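Long-time lurker. I teach an intro course on protein structure, and each term I like to show students one example going from raw sequence to a predicted 3D structure in token notation. This year I'd like something fresh instead of my usual example. Would anyone be willing to generate the tokens for the chain below so I can use it in lecture? Attribution to the forum is fine with me.
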Amino acid sequence: MDVNLLNEKDHNLLIIDDEVEITKALVRQFRRKYNVFATTDAADALKIMEKEKIQVVLSDQRMPGMTGVDFFAQIKDKYPDALKLILTGYSDIEAVIGAINEGQVFRYVKKPWNPDELESIIREAFEKYELITNNRKLMSSLQEANQNLEAKVKARTLELERVNASLSELNLEKNRYIGMVAHDLRNPIGVASSFSEILIDDLDTIPKETQLEYLGHISYSCDFSLKLIHDFLDVSKIESGVFNLNLTELEYLSFIKKSIVHEEILAKNKSQEIIIRTELSSITVTFDSNKIQQVLNNLLSNAIKYSFPDTKIVIDISESADEIVTKIIDQGQGIPEVELQKLFNPFQTTSVKATASEKSTGLGLAIVKKIIEAHHGWVKVESEVGKGSVFSFGLSKQIERSSPDFSL
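-- Reply from a regular --
Happy to contribute to a lecture. Here you go:
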């Protein structure tokens, strides 16, 4: 079976898997982003690579007559720049890791794969390919300059070093912000997707009032996602490393209740319950609702992620003379004391594993810290292994309308 689905030029992805349904599923996932060439046979794959400029190859490890590693060994010399990815089961891990160490395989993906993780790996492979080819072009230019004048070579080499250093720094910064966007968009998009699926599957049986309620959640999540994109991808904000708070006075308990609605779906999937605990009847606080929504999303999703099913997550709200304190209390696994001090650093993860294999970018708590500090508040964590964690943050009831540095 050969499939050629052209969509986006210059990004050619070859998929090889002897199971037709798996091949079709992978084609469906990636055909809107890349030119996808797919086959169930390694021999056909060789023919495709002879005709097309393939940048990334995704192959199953176990195929009749030839393993994925054996196929990559065959094409290694003829197509050295092609980034090679393996789909594999646990029983083949050692062979695949050996191939990675020998430079034959770029990355491996365990079956069954996570679609978001696989999409990220494919994107990284194309970025890696572009870096390889760009570096080759730079080297070619350098060799050409060497034929003319040694002085010109030295000058151009220095220029290339400066450019490469600048590109590396820009690429690192870009990856950080992309990671932040991906992390904070996952929850609202997931909520919109879940409600959409419910409406699609059971539209005829859902009362009109409930349909409107679900549509409201979808609309809210989409609006929130768009605001996040505008905040994080605005070029001037990224370059300057600062952001502005949109401060408004809001009734805090109502805001919290609204936020819980968009996390309850995740909690219910794990048979967990989110409970508000407070002695307050009403309190008005000045804050940026979108930014504090991010804080709550991050803290609640972490509590859900690292707690076991059939447990409770408590949101405790109290006040003092000049601030309101919010605590997210879970009955999770707890965090070792030696790891607490690095918890709010960017791209940091702990030894504690999510109870349902959920993924983490290591950015959520760093974002929480920066947002709370921008509100002139504080955030802290208390935890004990085996007993759970308490993440607390304090917000002043009235804060100055200024914005500190948001750079990570």
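Some talking points for your students: The chain has three domains: 3-126, 188-240, 248-396. The longest strand covers residues 388-396.
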